[in-house]
Structure formats: C-alpha cells, structure tokens
C-alpha cells in the first residue's frame, strides 16, 4: 500500500505562520523517514489560518531538508498563471531535486473572490481555457521542439498530476494521459466510481502509458480510538468555524470542547467526523485496505490536521508502522 502526505500548513491557535511552515517541513521529514511516497503542499490564498500560498517556493525549502520523498504541489492553481512560468518553476525544482518532483494542477480559486481578483483580472475566462492551459503546460514539460525551453531543463521532468473532486476532472485527466488524484475529503462523489471512469477513459500520452489513481482522504490516528476522536474534534470544529465564515486558527482541544457546548454543534461535529477515518493504527489501516479494495486506487494521499504538530507527526508514524507490519 503506497501512502503519501498532503499538507496545507494550517496555523494553530497560539502558533505563528513561520512556526506552521516549520512544522510542515518537519512533517515532510517524518514522511521521508517513515517511507511515505510523496509530500505535497496545497495552494491557498488570503486565508489567515493557512500558510501555504506559494508551494513552488516552500518546496525548495522542503526539498533541501529531505532526502528521498517526492515533493509536489497539491495543487498549483493553473488559471492564475502562464503555463510557461509554472513549467520554469517546477523545472527548477526538478533540476535541484531530480527524480523527486511532482506538479499537481487544479483549477479551484483556493480562496475568496477578492484574492482571485488580486491575482488575475481573468480568473473565470482562464478556468474556461483550462484544456488549452493544460495542453500548453504538457508541451513545455515534454520540451516540445519549437517552443521556448522552460529552463533549466532537468534530467527527469516533473511528474504531472491532475487533482479534482468530480467525474469531470477525472475524465479530463484521463483524456490528457495524466495521473489523477481524487480529493475524496472535499467531495460527496463516489470515489470508486470516479476512479473507475478515469481508468476506463485513460488515453496514454508521452511517457505516461498507464493510469495512476490516488485518493485524497482525511485521517486521524492515535494510540487509542478514544484519543484519536478527541484529537479530531478540533479539526471538525475548525471546519465548522470556516463554514460559518470565521477566520479562526485550528483550535486547541480545550477551545474546541468549549465551542461544542453550543446547541447543535456536537451533531455538526459528528457529521464532519463521519467523512474522516479516525481510530487506532489497526482500525485505520483496516479501513485503508477496505477502501483500496473498493476503489482500486494505487495510492492514498492522506491529509491530517491537528492543533498539535506532534499529534500530526505521530498519526502518520503510527499509520506507516502499522501498514508495514501487514
């Protein structure tokens, strides 16, 4: 079972953005040590509780402090940028960290409309041009003759991925011969069916001769199931706060439980936790194996958000150790 890490560099209550980024880098080092396949960082804008606004910059820092693990964006939001510049950024990373770089692309805004307007005057027109943008990026990635080279040209180009939360994105990835990561943690779609359609429609292109599907899922693991659920409460409360329009940082367990004293909040928290995998190592890996059998995915991209960085690092460590013993 291949396991990977997605991090958004969330900022916890009592933590600075710098501390959040340092904790995210330490998570990459944990992944490096415990055999995780990839470490991806998300792109978000104008969200005070997330420090991951520029993956292409942060990945240079992460790559220099890790040895083996693949590093990548999950995702670079292509409508904001010219494909040529994206290709240059990731070719630079792939030159420095050859054979270790992934370029995940998506089309979501990644933040409020004000941020989109600040980044570009034409976000929606660019979203509609996504097929052309992706095709252009692929050509730069393949160093097609007749186009300006996106220097520096690495010995091994970045591996291209499409990220999405719908059958449409899966179909788009398949038609373009791209690896695909389905964000189950952000979608109510049937992941098994989406992955099935991706495999069915896959068209080989360039060096990608077979489909590769990954499932993005929310997981919290601890020594006991009770402890894992207690840790997950703060994540669920934070999601609820965000849905209500607050800009709160990831709350401590104490803050979360005070918040849960409000009527109806416990029910909403439990509903949010139903979309996560929460438990002790054996229970979590059992569920991952069940999901793999159901969906047929090649790999899992795990996202874990906790108030304490140590709880997050331990969650990944426990999952890796349990999976290795199967």
List keywords for this structure.
326 residues; alpha/beta; TIM Barrel; eight-stranded parallel β-barrel; 13 helices; 9 strands; globular; oxidoreductase activity; Bact_Lucif_Oxidored; LLM class flavin-dependent oxidoreductase; CmoO-like
Topology (SSEs and partners):
Blueprint: E1 2-7, H1 17-33, E2 38-41, H2 55-64, E3 70-77, H3 83-96, E4 101-106, H4 113-119, H5 123-128, H6 130-141, E5 159-164, H7 167-175, E6 179-183, H8 191-201, E7 213-221, H9 225-243, H10 253-259, H11 265-273, E8 277-279, H12 281-295, E9 299-303, H13 309-324
Helix pairs in contact: 1-13, 2-3, 3-6, 7-8, 9-10, 9-11, 12-13
Would you give an account of this structure?
This protein has one domain (2-221, 280-324): Luciferase-like domain (TIM Barrel), CATH 3.20.20. The model has no long low-confidence stretch (mean pLDDT 96). It has helices spanning 17-33, 55-64, 83-96, 113-119, 123-128, 130-141, 167-175, 191-201, 225-243, 253-259, 265-273, 281-295, 309-324, and strands spanning 2-7, 38-41, 70-77, 101-106, 159-164, 179-183, 213-221, 277-279, 299-303. The protein has an eight-stranded parallel beta barrel with strand order 1-2-3-4-5-6-7-9, surrounded by nine helices. It is α/β, with parallel strands linked by helices and 326 residues long. β2, α2 (55-64) and β3 form a beta-alpha-beta unit. The protein has 13 helices and nine strands. Helices cover 47% and strands 16% of the residues. α1 runs parallel beside α13, α9 (225-243) crosses α10 (253-259) and α9 (225-243) crosses α11.
């Amino acid at each position: 079972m291949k396991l990977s890490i997605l991090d958004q560099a969330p900022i916890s209550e009592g933590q600075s953005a710098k501390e959040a980024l340092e904790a995210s880098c330490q998570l990459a080092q944990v992944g490096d040590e415990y055999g995780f396949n990839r470490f991806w960082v998300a792109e978000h804008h104008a969200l005070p509780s997330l420090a991951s606004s520029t993956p292409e910059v942060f990945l240079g820092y992460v790559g220099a402090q890790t040895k083996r693990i693949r590093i990548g964006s999950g995702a670079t939001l292509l409508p904001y940028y010219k494909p040529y510049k994206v290709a240059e950024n990731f070719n630079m990373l792939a030159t420095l960290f050859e054979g270790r770089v992934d370029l995940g692309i998506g089309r979501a805004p990644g933040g409020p409309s004000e941020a989109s307007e600040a980044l570009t005057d034409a976000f929606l027109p660019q979203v509609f041009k996504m097929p052309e943008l992706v095709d252009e990026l692929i050509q730069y990635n393949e160093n097609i003759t007749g186009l300006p080279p996106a220097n520096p040209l690495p010995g091994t180009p970045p591996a291209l991925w499409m990220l999405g939360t719908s059958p449409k994105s899966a179909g788009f990835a398949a038609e373009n011969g791209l690896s695909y990561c389905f964000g189950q943690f952000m979608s109510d779609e049937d992941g098994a069916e989406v992955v099935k359609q991706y495999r069915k429609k896959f068209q080989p292109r360039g060096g990608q001769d077979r489909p590769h599907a990954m499932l993005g899922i929310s997981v919290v693991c601890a020594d006991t199931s009770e402890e894992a659920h207690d840790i997950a409460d703060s994540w669920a409360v934070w999601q609820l706060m965000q849905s209500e329009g607050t800009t709160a940082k990831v709350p401590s367990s104490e803050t979360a439980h005070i918040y849960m004293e409000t009527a109806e909040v416990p029910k909403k928290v439990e509903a949010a936790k139903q979309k996560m995998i929460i438990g002790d190592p054996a229970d979590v890996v059992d569920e991952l194996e069940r999901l793999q059998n159901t969906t047929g995915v090649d790999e899992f991209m795990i996202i874990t958000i906790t108030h304490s960085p140590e709880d997050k690092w331990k969650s990944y460590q426990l999952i890796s150790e349990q999976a290795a013993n199967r």
